[in-house]
Amino acid sequence: MYTLVVLLVLLIGYGSWEYCSHRSNLKKIPIRIHVNGTRGKSSVTRLIAAGLRANGISTVAKTTGSAPRVILEDGTEMTVQRQGRANIIEQVRTIALAARRGAKAVVLECMALQPKLQYLCEHKLIRSTVGVITNARADHLDVMGPTVIDVAKALAGTVPEGTVLVTSENSKEQLGIFRQACEQNRSRLVLADPAEIGITDDIMRGFSYVEHPENVALAMLACELAGCDRKKALDGMYGAEPDIGALRVLKLAFFAKNIIFVNALAANDPESTALVYERVCSLYGDVEKKVVILNCRADRPHRSVHLGQLLGRLEGLDAVMLTGMGTKLAMESALKAGCPPQLLVQLEGEPPPVVFERTLAACGSSGLVFAMGNIGSGGAAIAEYFGNRAVPSPEA
Question: What's the pTM?
Fold first, then answer.
């Protein structure tokens, strides 16, 4: 019994020492930016970090999206090595790393999904000087749902206390939830509207990949709130390494076929995917066939259902390749949503070469191939297979 009490006291003491050490590290880093939201977190994190670096602010950043990375002061990246599942303690370690290196800023992508953990990450671990919520959309409904309003309430847990929140959310209901959370936390709400900030098409053409104006607007405002010059920040953003899940457009020429391949696998909620599909079709839709590759994950059944339903609403589809695992749910949802059965090609578990050949066969002489769904469960391998046979082309 005595030994147990001693061990318990030691454990409590160690925990108290750890927390005090963490609070000390926070005080050493005057700029702390916490990026949350449904879509665009990784991209916005990278853009903000690049903008801060370009203004001479020593910055350490961490993304947790398609492939978790720690980005150091000179822009070099380190892969986050995990022994098991992702754990929010990674944020504590990143802050400790930044403090040891003498960084003046950290930019951290929120890695929590559970509403209580989101709150904990902000109010106990990061205590941001600038909070960012990109948007609130219908994703991870099994954890934050069942509705998009519940998602917004969960995300609002990361509204900082007594500082400022920046968001590009424009839905009246979701925005109302963020505004109420700001009032409760005595924080100021700033809206990132690309048009009001002056994010023009000319500015967007400066990026080497397809970036979203809303992401740039968010990053620009976050950098300005941290004391940065706008032009220097934008120049830094142009040179930022995009996330592995960034929307890339590639051109292929195979067997007298001209193919445009769009990797939209990171936009895995229906609303974002639909917007990206419409945007891509408006830019590259002058083709004979439009083919979608929907890559599914067996451990994301809700996502498969919602993206399957989306297939019934996408205009101009000529074929859909169902890849990955757990495709039955997506197929059933697509059929219920009115997607013609003859468009659906069942390729569950098939390797990238088979997916590639079947997709090319469906393209006719020219085609737009739109890959959507999940990077996991073989999605990255499919995108890589297409990418290895393509030449990136800004004129695509």
Answer: 0.71
